[in-house]
Every structure is written in structure tokens, then in C-alpha cells.
Amino acid sequence: MLYENHYTHDDHVMLAHTVKNISDKKWIVSYDNVQAIADIYNEFDQQVFDINYSARSYARGSEIMIFSENIQRPTQIYCTLKERQLANAGAC
Questions:
Q1: Which of 51, 52, 56, 78 has the smallest count of CB within 10 Å of its CB?
Q2: What distance in Å separates the CA atoms of residue 84 and residue 52, rounded to the nearest whole number?
């Protein structure tokens, strides 16, 4: 279940409809990685990435980032310090 005790599926659909109709600006949407969200935004470029959460307690999660059309974006959204070190260039 996506974001327990918050938005319903219909709320996410309405939000997506609003975001999809933004035509004069570029936008990015980020969510927990769940299939329902990927399906709602299926006509847009998406990237899934792992992220460490540490606000209340440490956990590793998966996010999905959705991009508007014609937006310039990095080739990789998120990488850890270890990944940057392994890349030996300061960026992954």
C-alpha cells in the first residue's frame, strides 16, 4: 500500500492528472517505487533508484522519479559515497 494513512489511489490519479497538464513548465515527481504509480505515469520517462532513509530510523528504500517531456536530466539520479569512490571520479 502506498503511503498508508495519506492519499487514496484516486487522490494520486487526480494529482497525476494535474501534473500531466502542466505544459508551460518542466517538472519532476518522486514517489516510493510502487507499480500503481509507474502505471499512472506510464507515458513519461521514469527512473527507479535506491535511497537510504534516516529521518526516524535507518532503512533502504526504492524510489521512482518521473520526468516531464523535454527535461534535461542526469544519467544517474542517486549514488552512494562508496559508488562514487569506486567510480574514482567523484561522481557515478
A1: 56
A2: 15
**Coil, helix or strand at residue 9:** helix
Q: Which is more confidently placed, 58 or 70? A: 70
Tell me the pLDDT tens digit for each residue of 11-34: 999 999 999 999 999 999 999 899
Grid cell of 91 as nine digits:
561522481
Distances (CA, A) of 49 to 9, 31, 35, 72, 88: 22, 11, 14, 18, 21
Q: In 12-82, at which residue ranges do the beta strands (DSSP E only) sit?
A: 28-32, 45-53, 59-67
- Are the CB atoms for 78 and 91 separated by under 8 Å? no
What are the φ and ψ backbone dihedral angles of 47, each rounded to 5 degrees?
Answer: -140, 130
